[in-house]
Amino acid sequence: MIESRQQVTVRYAETDMMGIVYHGNYLPWFEIGRTTLLKEMGLPYRQLEADGFRLPVLEVAVKYVRPALYDDTLTIVTKMREKPALRIRLEYEVYRGSELLATGQTMHAFVDREGKPVRPPANVVTAMNTAFASRPSVEKKV
């Protein structure tokens, strides 16, 4: 399993009149987690795009447990439990301190510039093999 952590602070624009984060704003936080995890693996998304690849979202799911509030500092934990073949499945947990606020998952596939599904490029396969070979399969807690 590969895991990444990134902090965000809830901005006023991400909340409703009650100061509670609008449900759709969790998806950009998942994207922050995804791109951070890839960058930490040596696969910055900007480079993937420059090389002609995209990772569109095929599926997304979110479970809301507790509300995030204006000015909260949140930790987005992103996990890739299995080495991907053609699709990449990521899991997310959003915490305020040790309090779990939301969980989610996304599924992505590699496509070329024209949107045609393709196999992951060699540098991605190498980075995934290296990352999964060097990390123990132990789940860390916040």
Indicate the overall shape: globular
* Structural class designation: alpha+beta
How would a textbook summarize the main sheet? 5 strands, antiparallel
| Side-by-side strand order of the widest sheet | 1-3-4-5-2
How many domains? The number is 1
- Radius of gyration, in Å, reads 16 Å
| CATH superfamily heading | Hotdog Thioesterase
Give the strand content.
Answer: 25-35%
**N- and C-termini, Cα separation:** 15 Å
Low-confidence stretches: 137-142
Q: What would you note in describing this structure?
A:
The protein is of the alpha+beta class. The chain has one domain: Hotdog Thioesterase (Thiol Ester Dehydrase, Chain A). Helix content is 24%, strand content 32%. Strands 1-3-4-5-2 form a 5-stranded antiparallel beta sheet, with helices on one face. The model is unreliable at 137-142 (pLDDT under 50).
Brief account:
The chain is built from 3 helices and 5 strands; from the N terminus they run βααββββα.
Keywords for this entry:
single chain; globular; five-stranded antiparallel sheet; 3 helices; 142 residues; Thiol Ester Dehydrase, Chain A; 24% helix; alpha+beta; disordered C terminus
